[in-house]
Structures are given as structure tokens and as C-alpha cells.
Design brief:
Blueprint (H helix, E strand, L loop, with lengths): L1 H22 L3 E4 L5 E4 L6 E3 L2 H9 L6 E3 L24 H7 L3 E5 L5 H9 L4 E4 L6 H13 L2 H22 L5 E6 L13 H8 L2 E3 L13 H7 L3 E4 L20 H4 L3 E3 L2 H4 L6 H17 L5
Parallel strand pairs: 3-4, 3-5, 5-6, 7-8, 7-9, 9-10
Antiparallel strand pairs: 1-2
Helix pairs in contact: 1-5, 5-6, 6-11
Length: about 300
Amino acid sequence: MFAFSVVLKTLFTALLLATAGLAGADVVVFDDAGTRVRLPQPARRIITLAPHLVETLYAAGAGDKLVGTVEFSNYPEAAKKTPRVGSYVLLDLETVIALKPDLIIAWHSGNAPAHIDRLRALGFTIYVSELKRIEDVASEIERFAVLAGTSTVGNATAEHFRERFAALKNRYSTRPPVRTFYQIWKQPLMTIGGKQIISSVIRLCGGENVFETLETLAPTVSVEAVIAANPEAIVASGMDEARPEWLNDWKRWTSIAAVARDNLFFVPPDLIQRHTPRLLDGAERLCQHLEMARSRRPHG
């Protein structure tokens, strides 16, 4: 049902694009909360309230319309020079107001609802993002492009994303399943539930998230629960481009198949924990890791 609704949103967006020039219609899309976002003309001054939203805006060809963003917005390189409006959890509302945006793109899971409500009360147009599946990245690129009037670039980027996604799906999704534990952090020991988008990356690669049934997006689990789940691969992210030292802490638990077969893998968090076009770069690395885990299975 969700996939069908995304298709309807995409078709509706395409129809609006086709008729806007003829009828002088406003720019309209539906965000991930199902809210109709309407602008009298393409946005010229955009603020994004999460680092991954900056990346997607640039991918949609609208980076030159970005006037403000939050801390840790470090990709692409040009985004580092954009004025900051606080962090995604603590906004500087005065700075937001001073920048006079005609569109603010918010993150449902990361931004405080009170901040979003306050910005709406101040009269700002808000688009709320909350992607659930990898393929939804393409739809979001297209919707950002509609709002910014950059659909020529955005549609091409979205199509390329879909082609890459299809190629990865065809190559890996039907491979023998690999039971996978994805570790976000050590203390507390955090993983991902089945509704987190990284779970869809694992499925794309033919893997099975050992905590798929958990409803929370980023649940805390125990070492004992991981041992009981006996994953065949353990994948960690951490904070930056460096492999976290705590990944090797699992080596003491030799009863875990992933440890016994040296299937302790790392994927940089920016490539797999940000819901952007680079998510497929992270997916490629994860798929290769799970393929390595398959090759290390005992024979006979």
C-alpha cells in the first residue's frame, strides 16, 4: 500500500509539472507525512534541517538555492560553506527567521516536533521527510526538484538511482540469505529494527536483519541477545570514516558464527546511515561484505 501511494505521489507530481506552465498552477508536491506542500513559485531560498537533506537537495540540482542548514552538513563540499541554523535537534529559530526561507525541509525522525510546529506557526512552508525504503530516495529527489524548479537535473538523477538500485537488486537480493547484525554503537549497544531503512539495504543484499521484528527504529539490545541470534555477519558503522575499534570486541565471543568466520565488517556511516543517493554506495559495500560471508561458509 505504501509503495502504491508513492507511485501515486510521483504520478501526481508529473501531472503538475506538465500542466503548471499551461495553467499557471502553483508548485505542489506531497511530503512523506502525506501533507500537500504548495508554493506560488519554485523555491529560491531553502533551509534543510538535517545533513542528509542537504545531499538530496544538491542531487536534485538545487544546491544553489540552499541558504541555511544544520551542523554536520559536510557533503557535498559546497555545503560546508552554508550558514548554520543550529543542529537538527536544537534549532536557532532566530537565525532561521533572519534567512527568510520560502521553503524549509525538515526530518520527521530527527527534528523536534515542537520546532516544526513553531516554524509552521510562523508562516513558513514546511516539507517533512521520512524515507522508509531505499527506492524512496529517487522519489524524494524528484519532489525536491519540483519544489525548486530543477526537474531536468532531478529527474535524471532519480532515474540513474533507480537503475543502480535495480542492478544491485538483480545481482544480490536472491542470493542465499545471510543472518546479519548491524551495530550502530557500542554503549549502549544499538542496532536497527525492521522499519529502519538500513534493514531494506540488508534485504537488498540478500541479508536478514537478526532484529528485523523489533518495531523501534534504533533499539538497544544486549550482548546476550546478539549471541543468541548467532549472526553470520556483524556490520558496524561508528562515527566517521575509520573502522571503530569496538568492532573487534566481538572477537571474545567465538561461539558467534560471524566471529568464528572473521565476518566483522565496516561500512562508513555517511554511506549507509544517511538517506541520500550515496545510500547505494553503502549498499554496494554491504553487499560485497555479505558475499564475502557466503564465501566463508564451511563446505560439506
